[in-house]
Write a structure and sequence with these properties.
Length: 178
Amino acid sequence: MKHILIVVDMQNDFIDGALGTKEAQEIVENVADKIRNFKGDIYGTLDTHGEDYLTTQEGRNLPVTHCIYGEDGWGLNGEILQALAETQAEVHDFCKKGAFGSKELGDLLAAECGAEECTIEMIGVCTDICVISNAMILKSVLPEAKITVDASCCAGVTPESHNNALEAMKVCQIEVQS
């Protein structure tokens, strides 16, 4: 059985940058500990935008420039990078994504798991946007996989929207751990 950890968008802009929140800052240590102690394969996503961000649909609806490829805000948080360097898990390349969910990640894990039984644990930000979007993609391409979300390693745009997303995932047969 494969054990997979998905680290969603633990980038500077979502932690203490342009779209950072107190809640995101508070989960960094939990996320780093989870990464350090994980046994299995680690994959992840990186929200990735270009200089034209404000002209995109997302940019028009969320007019806060963030995660511009190559800029400091696009990079993974330093504590997360350190944890990835220290883990004994197999760390794979993180998928760059220009949308909330990563089709590339879904395709990659569908090929990786194939017919083999796998468990997928998800952590990161934002629970109510990118974590839930990626969880739904993975549930779609791997309907028999056990997918869990560790709520203590996730943060949303607001505490309320974080909790709403966790409840929505439960209804879709994604297990939520705290």
